[in-house]
Design a protein that fits this description.
- Helix content is 17%, strand content 28%.
- With 193 residues, the protein is α+β, with helices and mostly antiparallel strands.
- It has two domains: 1-28; 55-190, Sandwich (Immunoglobulin-like).
- It has a four-stranded antiparallel β-sheet with strand order 1-2-3-8, with no helix packed on it.
- The longest helix has 28 residues, at 2-29.
- It is globular.
- Keywords: Signal.
- Residues 1-23 form the signal peptide.
- Residues 41-57 have a biased composition (Polar residues).
- It comes from Streptomyces cellostaticus.
Length: 193
Amino acid sequence: MSNRFTGKATRGMVALTVVAALALGVAGCGGGGDDHKKPDSSASASKGRGSNPSAQEDQSDEPLAELKSSDGLLLQITSAQRDSGGFVTVNGTLKNDGATNILIPSALSGNETEIVRNGTSLGGATLVDPEGKKRYYVLRDTEGRPLTTTGFSTLKAGASLAVFMQFPSPPANAAKVDIQLPTFSSGTIQISG
């Protein structure tokens, strides 16, 4: 029985040593370059940030598309960037062009139980590749939260809110896609990158 216990303990120590060596190797491979580089955005970047939109850099004053809702909201798409991680980040501004406060419709979240459970969001948005005849839904993190702006309920008259949505990336040859959001008109946008 002593040999049996010693054998198990030895195997456990070897496994622990291998795991520790791998962890040190992985840690040693990170960074290794220009510390002034801007970090790549990732799907987990919005985790725990709630409604903080992603950075909206290098955008022109002219929106890629303007989507209008029946209740007076206007969504201006300002950028659609293909990232190396296999997703597309769409940035925009949600505006209330009306004279009264508008309660954000719950339909914007879509109807998937897992997304609706996380509160008001733009989780119902989709990208449609008309050439490839494929629809792309908003990505979710490992806890089921949509990778989009969340947690807003009312938009005051004349106010605007920076928003973002992340989708799986259509094929590289699909540069123009349609963006759709419940209660809004659809529009065509150009993906860069």
